[in-house]
What does this fold into?
Amino acid sequence: MDVLIYLIPVALFLGGLGLCAFLWSLKSGQYDDMEGPKWRVLSDDDLPEREEP
Amino acid sequence: MVSSARDWDSFASSSPVNGAIHMDFAVDGVHCAGCMGKIERGLSRMDGIDRARLNLSSHRLSVDWHPDEINAETIVEVLDAMGYKAHPFDPNLVRESGDATSRELLRCMAVAGFASMNVMLLSVSIWSGNVTDIAPETRDFFHWLSALIALPAAAYAGRPFFRSAFAALRIRSVNMDVPITIGVLLALALSVLQTIQHAEHAYFDSAIMLLFFLLIGRYLDQNMRRRTRSFAENIAALRADMAVKLLPDGSTREVPLSRVDPGDSVLVSPGERVSVDGIVQTGQSDIDQSLITGETALCAVKPGSNVYAGTLNATGSLKIQVTAATQGTLLDEVNRLLETAAQARSRYVKLADRAAALYAPMVHSAAALTFLGWWIWGGDWQQAMIIAISVLIITCPCALGLAIPAVQVVASGLLYRFGILLNSGDAIERLAEVDTIVFDKTGTLTNAKPHLVNASACSGSALNLAGRLALSSRHPLAIALAKASDAANPLENVQEIPGAGVEAILDGQRLRLGSPDFCGVSSSRVETALASSPGASVLVFQCDQKEPDLFLIEQSVREDAQNVVLQLQSSGYHLEILSGDRRAAVSAVAAEIGIKTYAAELHPQDKIARLDELKASGRTVLMVGDGLNDAPALAAAHVSLSPVTAVQLSQAAADGVFLGERLEPVARALNISILARRAMSQNLLLSTLYNIVAVPIAVAGFVTPLLAAVAMSGSSIIVTANALRLRLMQPRQINSNGEQG
It folds into this structure.
């Protein structure tokens, strides 16, 4: 059971990392728009513009 | 028209970093991702714009730009050319408080979620260890670890509940947060005690999981409210409440209303809405007060007259001195009535609080009796305490706390989809109790814009000529006539005589369009013409010495009003009209849509008196109205709705706002509320049943943390699923079910 001494801190640390990541994403406004991003991923804005045929 | 520089600077906030300006716009007409791409691409291509990003959930566009290369006016024009109406937010009016609360709840929820998952990990190990071969030292170690995680997490994530419970206790009342707080705190304290005594069980997981579930409910609830509020703010911003302010140096400037103070002078051109309350300094005009008093006929104003925000200036330019609500004005009276009405309203006790008031004493006395019972018959006070607290934990109102908010969230989501935005969560409960509906006439049963009723009776050439003449006027009747005549090219050299009408000379003939007096039509002839539609206003067109034409113009009834009234009547509602308009106009509308009880020419206090009368006879009233004169009645009624075209004061006084040209949302709101109320009762029943089963087990001392965890999550899932059932119903089903109920 001695392995718990390592495992539990590791588990807590990883969980805490997830929590911090969530709080950061909240703070940086990633939950402000829940509708837009799912459409944004489909738009081709990031491609160089082509001449319309 | 007065042309003046718009004071866009009031809307901007500049960033100190690179001198860029940041502004938020409310954008109308955004429906899909295509619009989003179009707007963002269109703006980003322009010079001087750093960043343009549209929030598709709140329909707000945030733009950063460099002030030396581009200005706000150009941005609004570009958006307008793309087909989107946009207006910047007045930063003074945008309240961020709702946003802050919802973020705090989300943070608490994240912490509680993190903690409950980790504590559960340890708890599952202990539970499985307890039935196999866990060493007592390991179990103690795990309990201490759980405490290490749960105590700080509960202290952080429980704050919303602790605060609210403390606030309730301070005014000596009980809300649902009081038993929640007591339950959580006792469970944690007991668990620490158990851990110190090397016991087999500790309830850290129950306490923190309870917080997590309840926070989910709170967050969803808050999020729904934030959504409706942000929508309401968009509407307010798009309405662009601006005023043309006269500066001391004589120049004019268009500023947002928050920059206008009492004592300032503002100019109002013909055809514009008056955006302030004040006294006319110079100028003469006719004012359309239908939004204020419900009166559809225009009212003449001259220097010294009072004018109110929300009225429409029809004929002449006015210079108005802004006043705060002064003694004796209509606004003052409305405000006074509103205050008393709002005080009376606050006596309503929400269903959730009623449940809490019943629940808390019952549970706490059950726990106390359990303690006494085990102490007297068992003898060990510590053992008795443990069992008593386990009673509190198992009855902790997880399901009860979710029972009502879960339904509210689902129901207000449904209402939102049908164009109804509610200001308060308990409006749903109150809507479900309604048995009488009182409508205002002007702007509520009728559309805000008037239209020509006797087009078929007029000769085409006269209508066309009159229409061309009408194009030169901003008078609402003239606008309606011009629209009906499809005239496109206005006449030249048209003169507008304030308070009378317009006049022009065409091919040597004098053409006049205006009031009957102006065109020399006798009042007896007007009366004969009005016999067919008594609610109409008369506009006369006279071509030289020829027989004048009379145009009857009326506010049309909302297209589905008749159907909705029929539907409501057949569902058993009693309907009434209370209007401030003339008797003839009211009775015409009442007859058209089939409402038998109506009263006309009412003042705000008369409307309240009628509502009190209805209340005294045991009825619960839904008031639907839009005018300033309705505001006190809206606040006094059991529950109230107003159309989105209503004046701001009324919208604020009402419990909800409905969008669009149709009256259907009113019926829809009632239907959904009845279903929601039914789901709330079912949920309360379910959680009562749960307690009936669980409490004896707990009193008998058989509850383990594992059992508590299963019971808690099970009951929460059941009430949430029951609330979600509402959502599965198709619109048609909602209709038919609601009518049965």
In short: Chain A is about 55% helix and 0% strand. Chain A has a mean pLDDT of 79.
